[in-house]
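Deviation from plan, reported transparently: calcium ion complex.
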Amino acid sequence: MREFIPFPEKWCFLFTFQGGEPFSQLIMKNVFSLPILYFCFTTLALAYQHSSPGVEKPNFIFIYSDDQRYDALGANGNPVIITPELDLLARQGIQFTNANVVFALCSPSRAAFLTGRYGSSNGVLELGSDLKQGEKTIAQYLKEEGYLTGMSGKWHIGKKPSETGFDFSVFFTGNGDYYNRLIYDEGKAITPEIHCDQYCASRSVDFLKDAVASDKPFFLFHNTQLPHMNGALIWDAKEKTKAQYRLENMPVANSRLDDLVDKPEYLRTVRNLTQARSYGYPNADSIKSHTRDYYAVITEMDHFLSELFESIETLGLRDNTYIFFMSDNGWMLGEHGFTSKVLPYRPSTHVPFFVLGPELAPGVNQELVLNIDSRKIRMKLIIWRKMTSLSQ
Ligand SMILES: [Ca+2]
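Because the crystal trials were delayed, the predicted structure below was used instead.
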């Protein structure tokens, strides 16, 4: 039996709906032992559930991109990168300027989001490793609240989506080629010729259409492959996309020339450094070429996501849907001489993050946010503090 504690009146406007009284009195007590995103999702879901009859629960769409660093988004102040679709959405929501992941690597980051727990607790500390027995995911929590749950795109933990609470799943495992990718579409193995991100965006749209027809609230976990490198370890963008960028406009970090002599031994031999040297770093031209290719696949990702964004509009979902966008980790483009991620340097852990939805006015928030938060209620404080300020 859940226990409830009073819910401050000043936040009640969030749960005020047409034809209904404000939801004002209750909030799930045990959310304070849950991580931030669980808090946000489940609290909103429960709040709606316990509000007046006829009030619909909110829908949730969480989009996770792959290896997209914080500044690889136009809305975050990058004047060069071309991301019009994401920029448009970001500027309609709350843009978080200090969002980070607790473990800058694909599988642990995804497991951290799904469980709301650190890898040391949920068991996923390596690529492709599995959740510990009994670990409960956000999909399972929401499914218990009557949600239709779907995931689409990259999946990178041991258990299948269907074993972690998802009713609908269209996924490819780990990393590989962008085209002709082996995809498990509702249990059927296929290899569509089109880009895997394009295919999965279309299937996410199918899920949204089915969810609308079902009349159930829904949770969609949409995961892009981009901008992760492909199986040949290159950013395989089309030439016409690359041609939108001029090499001379690509930024180059001054720290690429850092002397690591006073750093720990492992940093002078770590793969992030040897791989960077194989790319030609710290030569500025090599970094510019790499950055151009990286930006180009992000532009393609932005384009593929447009189908999903358009369907949210055409299906009339904006009035009752919260949309979250985040990346599973960042990427180093020559900072301190390094490439890739994992290392806890800021370009590796710092990620784009924005949220938009009903009653959330556009704005910028500079507080620290994590894909899991050790202080448990950080997201609640951030989002609801914003809401509170709007209600005053
Ligand atoms: Ca990643």
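The chain has one domain: 56-369. We consider this an acceptable substitute for the interim report.
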